[in-house]
Amino acid sequence: MERKTHGLLGLGALLLIFLGMMALMRLTASQVAQLSGGVGIIDLTFGITPSKISSALSGYGRTATAYYQWGFYSVDMVYAMAYATFYRCAVKSIIERTGMGGRKSELMPVIPIAAAVCDMLENTVMFFLLSGSRSVGLMWAFTVFNIAKFILVYSSLAFVVGGALWLLKKRLS
């Protein structure tokens, strides 16, 4: 019998790490919202426009800006690695368990990694914006990375949930 590279126990452990990091990321995001008088984290807004980015940047005080840069982003960088690792391993496991083959299925595990790269690029751009740059080009770059991140993350989520449901249905029948 062929050994699966991603057992359920390992995936469960990765899921717990991912969910723990998600909770910590949400906690730090709420701290930014509290420190900024409700402006909050704009990274979590799909497709935010440069005008809304500029407006949000104006609403952050010194303390909120510093916490956004150093507190939130320290957690968000690790969170991106956690979700990318979990989704990549889950996608690979589903591909193995379903017997999917071909070039497209070989590229599927790259999608969560690409999502994390977009997330980290989005974070890097926002770090510069929070440091005082008000470049419209950087704001557009943030918007592009933000949209790409959300599309890739939710594509990974859809594949994992759909694949897990398909495997569950197959097991129950």
Q: Which short descriptors sum up this protein?
A:
6 helices; 173 residues; mainly alpha; single chain; 80% helix
**End-to-end separation:** 22 Å
Q: How is the biggest beta sheet arranged?
A: none
Order of helices and strands: HHHHHH
Number of helices: 6
Proportion of residues in helical segments: over 70%
Taken as a percent bin, the fraction of beta residues is under 5%
Description:
With 173 residues, the protein is mainly α. It has one domain (8-166). Helices cover 80% and strands 0% of the residues. The chain has six helices and no strands. The protein has helices spanning 8-35, 50-59, 62-98, 103-107, 110-130, 136-172. Helix 3 packs antiparallel against helix 5. The longest helix is centred in the middle third of the chain and has 37 residues, at 62-98. The protein starts with 7 loop residues before the first helix and ends with a helix.
Which helices and strands occur, and which strands form pairs?
Elements: H1 8-35, H2 50-59, H3 62-98, H4 103-107, H5 110-130, H6 136-172
Helix pairs in contact: 1-3, 3-5, 3-6, 5-6
Short description:
By secondary structure, this protein is an all-alpha fold. The chain is built from 6 helices and no strands.
